[in-house]
Design brief:
The protein has 182 residues and is of the alpha+beta class. Helix content is 16%, strand content 25%. Strands 5-7-8-3-9 form a five-stranded mixed β-sheet, covered by helices on one side. A hairpin with a 6-residue loop joins strand 1 and strand 2.
């Protein structure tokens, strides 16, 4: 039996379609990009995506694409300005310091778990994000995000749900915001 070029291309299209149905998790050797964004008038600021799923050993890079603001990517950890720990205890906390427009900062994530982070000058505006490293191995992963401590209400409302990140592979800011009145 011989296979025609059309059959090969058709099979490849089916493979692409099948792969697009699974959660969008980056390959372990890919760098995952998180963009720091904001409106030109400074009225809103955010990370895009706000929630991601990565593999242990994968690199995440934050890039400030907001021409009117400086931003940070700072782990919730007592070592960073005595903030509550919202990351695995064995993981090393990070702080990018202030990134000017078009500057970047990267972290390699090796410890499995849930990591929450924020932008120092914009935490009160809900500029926070969540990274999940690895797959959940036991019940209660949603409880591992850590204490709320003195986090601003806008930050607490902005975090995407662990379940949504695990299902989709990533969550954009507009996917976490309530729709309709109320």
């Amino acid at each position: 039996m011989s296979v025609t070029r059309r059959q090969v291309l058709g099979g490849g299209g089916g493979l692409v379609a099948a792969l697009s149905l699974s959660p969008q998790v980056a390959w372990a050797d890919e760098v995952v990009e998180i963009r720091m964004r904001g409106r030109d008038d400074g009225s809103q600021v955010w990370f895009d995506p706000i929630g991601i799923l990565v593999e242990p050993g994968q690199t995440v890079r934050w890039t400030n694409l907001n021409s009117g603001n400086s931003h940070t990517a700072t782990a919730y950890s007592p070592t960073n300005f005595e903030r509550p720990r919202r990351m695995p205890k064995a993981a090393k906390p990070w702080d990018s310091d202030y990134l000017l427009p078009n500057e970047s900062f990267s972290v390699i994530f090796t410890e499995k778990g849930v990591y929450d982070y924020y932008c120092i000058p914009h935490e009160h505006a809900g500029m926070v994000g969540r990274i999940i490293v690895g797959a959940p191995e036991a019940h209660g992963w949603t409880e591992l995000v850590g204490p709320n401590g003195d986090l601003p209400e806008a930050a607490l409302k902005a975090f995407p749900k662990v379940e949504d990140i695990m299902t989709r592979g990533f969550v954009r800011r507009d996917q976490t915001m309530p729709t309709g009145p109320g």
